[in-house]
Design brief:
Length: 232
């Protein structure tokens, strides 16, 4: 059997249509797609969006993508690692993401900025994005996403919608950006959540007195933004 690595290609045409519908695409939209695979979603995006910038890391899949969409006027293809490639100034992101890069690529999306994103994640990761303060799943990525975006889980996806089939369910998540943070904010969250159950005074030098005795795991996304703005 061909080794697909971390990629699971969506082959359910109805689900692909649903993802595009959730994204509310128009000809004014410039869409970024990460993990384009062999182009099943890319083709749908190109039908509705003004322009699509699609990234694929696997050489074999990229060649197939290029053979089928290389001459498409509103599609630009990039071969490489999406966690390292510079993104264009797109206003929307629509992707069926490789599970292994979910955390890294979501952080990059947030610091890059966008208007809205419709993303397919492993169900368990989607639960982390929406986790509430002090729950076992609340962590740095929860705080980063919730403090910068409105987050909504729109749908769940059965494994049989993919080829090869993953052994887990997936979720469609929509993010609407409300604040594009500087990279320093993401770095500060990384630092404090590495010690999320310690008081900030034990992790940082001279934290704002208002938050000095707070533990990141117990701070709401709004409090973390206020803490950052008071600290810089």
């Amino acid at each position: 059997m061909k080794k697909y690595g971390d990629e699971h290609f969506m082959v359910d045409d109805g689900m692909l249509e649903k993802i595009c519908k959730y994204a509310s695409l128009t000809r004014k939209d410039y869409v970024l797609e990460v993990g384009a695979g062999t182009g099943n979603l890319t083709k749908k995006l190109a039908e509705s969006a003004g322009r699509v910038f699609a990234i694929e890391k696997n050489q074999e899949f990229f060649e197939k993508l290029n053979s089928e969409l290389g001459r498409c006027d509103n599609v630009e293809l990039a071969h490489g690692d999406a966690t390292k490639i510079a993104f264009p100034e797109c206003n929307k992101i629509v992707s069926n993401l490789p599970y292994s890069i979910s955390r890294r690529i979501t952080k990059k999306f947030i610091t890059h900025g966008f208007d809205s994103a419709v993303l397919v994640y492993q169900k368990e990761f989607a639960e982390k994005l929406t986790a509430q303060v002090e729950s076992e799943h609340y962590r740095m990525i929860s705080a980063l996403v919730q403090s910068t975006c409105e987050v909504e889980v729109l749908d769940k996806i059965n494994p049989d919608s993919f080829l090869p089939q993953p052994n887990v369910w997936s979720s469609i998540v929509r993010l609407k950006m409300k604040w594009k943070p500087p990279e320093e904010y993401e770095k500060l969250l990384n630092t404090v959540f590495n010690h999320k159950n310690k008081k900030l005074r034990n992790t940082l030098e001279n934290p704002p007195e208002k938050y000095a005795d707070c533990k990141p795991a117990q701070m709401t996304p709004e409090e973390l933004v206020d803490f950052y703005k008071s600290y810089i």
